[in-house]
Amino acid sequence: MKRLPDDIYRQCVAIAKSYYAMLQRRKEQEEEILHGSSPPDSQPHGSGVGNPTARKAERLIAAQQRNEQKIRAVEQAWARMDDDTAREFIRQNVFEGVPMHYIALPISIRTMKRTRGLFITYVAEELGEF
Questions:
Q1: Residue 25 vs residues 18, 30, 33, 122: alpha-carbon distances, Å
Q2: 80: how many CB neighbours lie within 10 A of its CB?
Q3: So where are the chain's domains?
């Protein structure tokens, strides 16, 4: 297995670790679309000419697409894992942040490290980064 460049590895780890947050953001974006506006942000707003609603819609759609791409990449990488033990390890360690030495699965720490590295490589591949 080829080694990922450090910057891509770190980026993919951050994406994988934020999986639950991305799912929450998906819900928030859906609510924002349904209700037509986001919560007030206490920021001043200009009175410039243009179509602020259209610009906001474009930004929201772009943000949704980026979020969905990341969610899909993590889910597809997770599905590519060999077995249920590997998937359970990824769920606990990467998604929930449980340290390896606290995970009670029938695999060694060394195998956990290899499994995590493989998963992160899969995330990079699914994102088209590697």
A1: 10, 9, 12, 23
A2: 16
A3: 6-33+60-126
Radius of gyration, alpha carbons of the chain:
19
| Res. 60: pLDDT tops 90 | no
The CA-atom distances, in angstroms, between 10 and each of 14, 21, 107, 125 are 6, 17, 24, 14
Cβ neighbours of residue 80 under 8 Å, at least 6 residues apart? 122
Q: Is the pLDDT of residue 44 over 80?
A: no
Q: What is the mean pLDDT of residues 67-79?
A: 96
What is d(CA 2, CA 28) in angstroms, rounded to the nearest whole number?
Answer: 37
Residues 6+ apart with CB under 8 A from 23: 71
Entry pTM: 0.79
Q: Are 115 and 91 in contact (CB under 8 A)?
A: no
- The structure tokens 């819900």 sit at 27
As a whole number, mean pLDDT of residues 42-61 equals 69
Cα Dmax for the chain: 63
Of 24, 5, 20, nearest to 74 (Cα)?
20
